Amino acid sequence: MRDMLFLAQTSEAASPADRQVITDLLDTLHAHLDDCVGMAANMIGVRKRIIAVRMGPVCVPMVNPEIVASASPYEAEEGCLSLSGVRRCKRFQEITVRYLDERFMPRRQTYSGWIAQIIQHEIDHCNGVII
Question: What is the pLDDT confidence band of residue 83, given thresholds at 50, 70 and 90?
Answer without folding.
Answer: confident
